[in-house]
Amino acid sequence: MRLLILFLLFGGIAAIQDDNELLGQPEIQCNTDTIDMQFRTRKQFNGKVYVKGSYNRPECRVDYSSKDEFGRPVGGIKLNHGACNMDRQRMIAPEGMMFSTILIVSFHPLFLTRMDKAFHIKCMYKEATRTVTAAIDVSNLPTESVQSDLPMPSCSYTIRRDQLDGPILKYAKVGDQVVHRWQCDSEEYGLLVHSCYVEDGQGDKQMIIDERGCHTDHLLIGDPTYVEALNMAYRESFVFKFADRIAVRFQCEIRLCLKEDGGCDGVTPPMCLFQDENSIQKQIVKRNAKTFSPKEADMFSQTVYVIDKDSEDEPNKEELRELAPNSICLAPEVFTSIVTFATLTIVFLTTVLMIICYQQFCKTEIKNLSGDYQY
């Protein structure tokens, strides 16, 4: 009976320890038109891999319970560039295009458990620099060397609470006051914020600042204000969100110009008082052809989780938190169950050991007494 109890006990513990899990880090392949992710698990994987926020779209989810004749998952984990709300971001330092998405490896068919992990996948495609030369027979001309040693600036887009230098916002209620802040860490470059969208993380988005850099709806956000150095813009606003959605994120394009020799004239700040496009063009100062050509880049704000204004409950950060790369998702109920089971296991083991020790002690005492009676 004692052996049976111990077998059942340690068998239950082994069953918990025998849960499937990922081995090492996934392997990412950045192909010409697709992104591919491969990974290994300790046991055969029968779960799902899907793009965060796109679980209900069949093309964004791979079910590993369906196998082909060779035991491999049908379809594989391969995403086309731009598919399933994949972020497409033009970069300026280094210059190129970055595609990124969040893939979740889920072992359970319905819920996130402690074994599941989320990975932020990024593929950077740098622009190739090509030099084209041609031999032309012409008379000798003086050679003029033109180069720019200024490094490209690092730019950011953040949403601050209450004021320009306030803390970066993560959770909010509808109607809270915030400040949108666009900034580049350079005194030589100016920036223009334009083509801004607000998105819900599931494919829906709405333009709030047009291609000129002017607002489209003053109830959402007004025209950005630019500092004198032109390397930062900001705008006060109030928190809003999509109906029946809990998260919002903002995407903007920025145009960089070199302030030297009037390179930012007619580029930034925008002239939003003119509604007629022809009038705007007449106000733009024509620049010399040798002036630095403006650079375009994409910027994303942090994701903000928003609850309704009339809600009395504060946002549950554990439920609303964004899955971080390599994070382990553990529901409170699962954690409580594990702690309870571990406590009961320790108590049970202690009791069994005490019973065994007591039985051994009793046998020894009985044997000693039997020996005394023989004399």
UniProtKB/TrEMBL annotation:
Against InterPro entries, the record matches this protein to: CUT_C (IPR057475), CUT_N (IPR056953), Cuticlin (IPR051962), ZP_dom (IPR001507)
Location of the ZP domain: 29-271
What Gene Ontology terms describe what this protein does at the molecular function level?
Answer: structural constituent of cuticle
- Assign the protein's first listed, main location to one coarse class: membrane
Q: Which first-to-last residue range defines the signal peptide?
A: 1-15
Choose one Gene Ontology CC annotation of this protein and give it.
plasma membrane
Question: Pfam families recorded for this chain?
Answer: CUT_C (PF25301), CUT_N (PF25057)
Where located? Cell membrane
- Note the topology in the membrane: Single-pass type I membrane protein
Keyword annotations from UniProtKB, A to Z? Cell membrane, Cuticle, Membrane, Signal, Transmembrane, Transmembrane helix
- Membrane spanning residue stretches: 334-358
Concerning PANTHER family, the annotation shows: GH04558P, ZP DOMAIN-CONTAINING PROTEIN
Q: What is this protein called?
A: ZP domain-containing protein
According to its UniProt entry, this protein's organism is Caenorhabditis angaria
